[in-house]
Amino acid sequence: MGTNPEHVTKNIGILMEDMDDVIVDGMGSALTCHGNQTELSSIRSTDVSFRNFTTDWYSPGVLDLTIMDTGVVGGQGYLDYKLPPGNSYAINGATATFMGEKSPLAGLPYWTQVPGETMGWQNQIRDLATGETVRAGSGIPLWKDSTSVTNMGNDIMRVTCAVNQNPGSEGQVYETRRHTRDTPAS
């Protein structure tokens, strides 16, 4: 359940509900989650433990865009972003809409992230060299001065900027997340 009336019902991968004295032992398993779901939950239960397994997402709702290269070509700065596997995007002129894994039943992405969602308070910038992560209060500069987006292949997209200088930021990761938390932990 949830408090947002639009998203009251939740999908949960492993649910222990109204259980007592239960151990969920994965025996070293590695679980990969798909779609919109909470990985695991214990509701109205006591003495429930989850252990000996790891979890990961095929296409997480938090999108890590790693800046692989920056520079200047033809008098315009650019940033090359690497998308994590399992995600795609649709170019919208000077921006893009990100999409997660497609549902095998509906054929539609489980989630989409429109360009405006990069401007929210919940996004972060991580510096791979220092390990520092900061909350981007006014949003990440993903589309700052953007004039075009180009698919470079191998999950890399190039954002070209209207400025005639190297925009820098190589080695940073822009962490974007959707504004609506329809399924916490996805």
Give the topology.
Layout: E1 12-17, E2 20-33, E3 38-43, E4 46-57, E5 62-73, E6 76-82, E7 88-92, E8 95-99, E9 112-113, E10 124-127, E11 133-135, E12 146-153, E13 156-161, E14 172-177
Parallel strand pairs: 1-3, 2-4
Antiparallel strand pairs: 5-6, 5-14, 6-13, 7-8, 8-9, 10-11, 10-14, 12-13
Summarize the structure in words.
The chain is mostly beta strands. The chain is built from no helices and 14 strands.
Give the overall shape, derived from the CA principal axes: elongated
Radius of gyration: 19 Å
Largest sheet: 7 strands, antiparallel
What percent of the residues sit in helical stretches (DSSP H or I)?
under 10%
Instruction: Determine the structural class based on helices, strands and strand pairing.
Output: mainly beta
Cα end-to-end separation: 15 Å
Would you summarize the structure shown here?
With 186 residues, this protein is mainly β. It has strands spanning 12-17, 20-33, 38-43, 46-57, 62-73, 76-82, 88-92, 95-99, 112-113, 124-127, 133-135, 146-153, 156-161, 172-177.
List keywords for this structure.
186 residues
